Amino acid sequence: MKQLFTNRKPWLFLLVLLFLAYPFIVGQSVYLISIFVMVCVYAITAMALDLLIGFGGQVSIGHAGFLSVGGYTVAILTTKLGLPFLLVLPLSGVITGIIGLLIGLPAVRLSGNFLAVVSLGFGLSIPQIALNWDSLTGGYSGLPLARPEWLSNDSQFIYVIILMTVVIIWILHNIVKSRLGRAFVAIRESEVAAQATGINVPLYKTLMFVISAFFTGIAGGLYGYWIGFVSPNDFSVFTSFLLLGMIVIGGLASIPGAIIGAIIFTVLPELTKSLIGLTNIIIGIAIVGIILFRPNGLISLLEMFRIKKPSKKVMDEQEVYLSDLEQGGAARDANV
Amino acid sequence: MVKKGFTLFIAFMMVFLLAACNGEKTSSNNTTGGKDSNELAQGVTKNEIMIGHSAPQTGPVAVYDTFRKGMDTYFQYINENGGVNGRKIKLIAYDDQYQPTKASQNAKKLVEEDKVFAVIGNQGSAANLAAKDYYINKGIPVILPGTGLKGFVDPPVKNWMGATMMNYEVEAQIMLNYAVNELGAKKIAIAYQNDDFGKAPYNKIKEIIKTYPGVELVAEVTYLPADTEFSAQAQKLQQAKPDTIFNFGVMSPVVNLKKAMYKIGLDKTKYIVSSIAGGDTHAFQLAGGDVWERTYSGGILISLDDENNEKIKLFKERFKKSYPNEQATNFVESGWSAAQVFVEALKRSGDNLTWDNFLKSFNTFDNWDGSMYAGVSFSENNHYGITKMYMTKAENGKIVQISDSIEFEPETGKISLPKK
Amino acid sequence: MLTFKDVTVKFAGVTAVKDLSFEVPQGNIYSIIGPNGAGKTTVFNCISRFYTPAAGTIDFNGKNILKLKPHQVIHEGIARSFQNVELFAKMTVLDNLLVGLHPTLKKNIFSISLNLPSVKKTEKESIKKAYEVMDLLSITDLANEKVRNLPFGYQKMVDIGRAIISSPKLILLDEPVAGMNPVETKKISELILRLKKEMNYTVLVIEHDMSLVMEVSDFVTVMNFGQKIAEGTPQEIQKNPVVIEAYLGEVEENAQIV
Amino acid sequence: MLKLSDVHVYYGHVHALRGLNMTVEDGKIVSLLGGNGAGKSTTLKMISRLIQPKKGSYEMDGQSMLKDSPSRVVKKGIIHCPENRRVFPLLTVEENLKIGAYSRKDKNVKEDLEKVFLYFPRLKERVKQKAGTLSGGEQQMLAIGRSLMGKPKILLLDEPSLGIAPILVKEIFEIIKKINKDGTSILLVEQNANMALGISDYAYVLENGHIALEGHSQDLRNNDEVRRLYLGG
Amino acid sequence: MQIIASGLIFGCIYALAALGLVLIFKTTEVANFAHGEMAMITTFISYVFLSKYGFPYLAALGLALLFALVFGIVVYVLVMKRVQSAPHLNQVVLTLGLFMIFNGLAGLKWGYQPTSFPEAFHGDPFKLGSIFISTNEIFTVGLTLVLMLLFFLLFRFTKAGLGMRAASQDIMASELMGIKVSGVFMGAWAIGTALGGIAGMMTAPVTFLSPNMMGEVLIIAFAGAVLGGFNSLPGAVIGGLIVGVFENLVSYYVAPELKIVFTFLLIVVVLYIRPQGIFGGAKIVKKV
Predict the structure, then answer these.
(1) How many domains does chain C have?
(2) Residue E174 touches partner D, C-beta closer than 8 Å
(3) Which residue among A131, A236, A273 places its CB closest to the CB of B194?
(4) Which of A83, A307, A323, D199 is most enclosed, with most CB atoms within 10 A?
(5) B270 and B188 share a domain?
(6) Does residue E276 contact residue A130 with C-beta atoms inside 8 Å?
């Protein structure tokens, strides 16, 4: 544990440094800043999703829905009620968290593909609801919103985003390293044993949804403020799929992994932009390639540098692979 | 294995460095941007003009990319013939997958990294809305974007010019007017796509139908662009017994509703569909048989069926050359026409190409019919651009023009009655 | 301490346990033996509240535990291990034990999010306690290994460790030595006896390995077809003809070496 | 006759089998003893070709088996009855047994089904029951019966006594003897060293991936070191 | 009545798409999100045979299905085989990656312009009682039911079916019993893809042929399949039909634009009451 900690600290520090230095490096380019902002938005969302899927084992393929909710919350509260920024941003998390609670309640009973479909339905429904609830959401034409005066400049606002991102990384890091995070992983690994060790499984599952939705909501809120406009088209099911891709590509159950995934999936399309019609193919190839050749995600590249002395009593990765192979399909789900 | 991983890691870092380097380049160049109005605008050199385009190339509505192909074909044609004022046109097109986020990202890249002179034909209402403020602040000319929402052009914004399609509301007005006055519609039903394509014209019709005495709205049904099953809507329409049915949406659902109505025998009622859905014969193919017959629609471009028209011939010939595997549809033609308008404006701006000159040149368009559009007009107070439309009817597998051009006057909001 | 009174459990019409009554006295090691499918694990699952009996009562220190939810059982001081080890496979040995401490820790989400000193402090204490337990089981050198990479026997150890770390009053051990060879079995026997003597735990064991049962038990209950067929001290049970017939089988030379 | 010589198996960095040499002669019961993690199951997995050795030779009746797939090995008559029974829980007893005969082309499956029921009359009573609902002992019987349906020349048994009541363990060991008498060689991996040495002809003791000791079962039983390390005596 | 009938007919299309999905899932435990795109590519191939080489409909269908079998095998061998034992999420994301590749490639090759695709049987709709129905629709319904029955029987009563069921429960034990698991899985992918191809060819006349033709259909089919329990072939068909009819009812009585919202609400309610789906069968209680 301690070893892990000392290993992780320097490069966490590096990351923060990079974060802070980025605006200076890119100077006045709004384009590069905007890529950076989207990286932050997706990184927060991917981390929140990873908390739910990677750590907690609860599949959600409708997470983009929470992003939309966060964005709309900010837009509605700002334009319709005229609330101040400092109140609206946390509220976007709170309201999305409440929605997460509502989704989490029925989800507690479901697992695997069943949960996937329910969350997919949520992801599909949010844009439809936004489209139809004209009076609140502005329907197809969306809602414009303005940043407060003191943040109207992009190069000022980016520091808010950096600050939020760093704080959220820190909080999520604290959560997953804590007893709470351990309880989430325990639920993922064995619900029966988790219950026997005194973990209130339904409560914790719901809690996971709430926490995940809360931070995703804040990411959505930041997005709304950044673009200055929210619409039903912003986050589709496709975004949810990409988010899934991010956490798997980066490395499941790893906060740095989620960040790496977010960076790749935000930067890659920008690099391939000029190749007409190829963006999706390239992203697809990247996904397939990474999963085939780095099944534990890109984060496993970093872990290679950490030399691991296997204890004599321990089988290594190969065995892991085999013991997975032994676990049959239906048996894996039916928990036989 | 370790080595391979390391190389990957290095590659990953390189990406970052690359991004960083790009950044520095930008920051140093930025100060020398085209602020001085006597100098050429950004993206313009002695022999090249760079212009940008952001639209879906992949994803659910990737079909909009055919618009780019139309533009591209025309620019190739112009470049092969010496360009405009000695400058070749270079089109930089980015994929936004119909997502506002990406559209706004693209806008920033086009303007700051690629330093384009103008953007043309950006598709999608939401995408355009997301990037609107940025373009307006930067002063980049936005030429004929692919959205028919009124808010973009009315009230006019200095650097926002027109749209590639008929304004949704104007189109609705013209069609309702035609239906009532020429086709004798009394009991009207509306089907509309539940997004900008459908709701804007629907709202307009609802608003103005009161001004037509004796005409009533008997049914409204909605659908989503990706819908395929329309029996419920067809049933509802049948029960309302309308004499005219409007349908505002894109081609696939509009055709599918027609098929569903045909199936249950709701075939004699007049069916009027938006111009983006009914503009070309492709609808016949999709609907199959004589399902599509007698469908009314509107057109703002010269009909592709007009085989003898020299412009159409040139277009078809060039397009076949540039994109041999693609079908020349209405949407491709629309891209070609937008490019025509753009090139014409360039020509009219003269050699000293600045944003001001360029934007001012648009005000000289008065019912210009040099492009495929029936008429293009701009003025200080009119940024609609496309103000002329004619009605069409599907007959014997062809789209036939059945009225003269009907004109809309943005200043007064009036529409002229078609001359028979 | 733990009292079963006329407990009956049914699954889809099949009676798994019928009118079972027994009492585990404080500070004893109590064994339940019986053929496969006799309903032994069902008894455990009733105590863990995974199953609810159709009839009867289960009291623990005078409190009706049938009113509890599965996750509340441990708060009463009842911990258990599992027959086919139910560990958190992808977690390290240390983390598995720390999860075992879950019920004793405060879980204020805000102080956790901010990693306040109080959280840090209790976390340090937990880790210290986990190392104590690992020392007890002599698996300290495996602390940072993922349990799924361990051989079955070590997994069993971790499973037992996770049950005892929260200092329960009663420990349920379900086949603690299955898959262990006689030497390893002996080690576990010694451990169980130490738990009783040094820490005064009460232990309820299900086991097929008679060497362990004979060595550690104070009292044995034998079950067959969901019913109690015999009870008594290990020596009595070993000689009971009903038990020999149903469970032990004819005494052969092999068994004598045990 | 099955012969392994100088077999090395690696799991990643871990050297699991380090130059294993062993032979299973026709008609014999051979047992393989060793502590947790000594490499017993690995040996069986290697023989049934679930694992590829890095080095070494593996022959059956003089033919190398190193290139064969698991299903080929089954066809050649080596059948591995895995640890923890591994019956198909959602299939019925009958279906489980039929799976055992999956690789056979002949039509005598029905007869062999009856033969298996002769060994395990209990299975016949539960022929339509889902395997997942059987008790542990019955599942073990089913697992062995399933393996027998493939008409093995050599049967590899991994811990048949795991988690099973003493009386059933005795029954199962009796049946193993019977199976052997009826002409099947058996390679037995067992924690219960007493039982294993009791029924086998020859035995190997594995330590850290190599054979530390071998000999006739009777001799090993009297070996002091074996008694101390594995019999707990 | 017409609403329900039309819903049933369209439900059959969902059911067809769901059948292949469930077949693959039932055997290999992979929820194949690329299923729709593979179906789309198969349909495009049949279209090439139809329009470019002028084959008759049935011949084109046969050739396309042949292609689908090979296509399924190639996808399995090149990609899916290597993640057979990986976590489910990896598999799911992998198929999402394939989805993007196939969709993009089809777009590059054939363009995104929707094209019409012929129906298996032509002919104007006729009236059956108060319901309008066409020959082709009857064909679709019949085909769905026949295929469902066929594969149901295959799973239940043949040796190959037994092997498939065994392999899905315990890969290692199956290998040890002499089942070539990779062969069985390959077969499931081949047949599943071919089933998808059939679904594609039944869908194309309705949604029109384009790289995006299966997107919406597949999502609803997936939902329908899950509603049916996701590992039951009759469940897939029933689930598809329920969703089809329910969608239409919502369209008619509530609001068409909210049908997706309501459909998923229905699924949430059903799954809340029966977490294993309608035909999911009781979960085996874990023995601890």
Answers:
(1) 1
(2) yes
(3) A131
(4) D199
(5) yes
(6) no
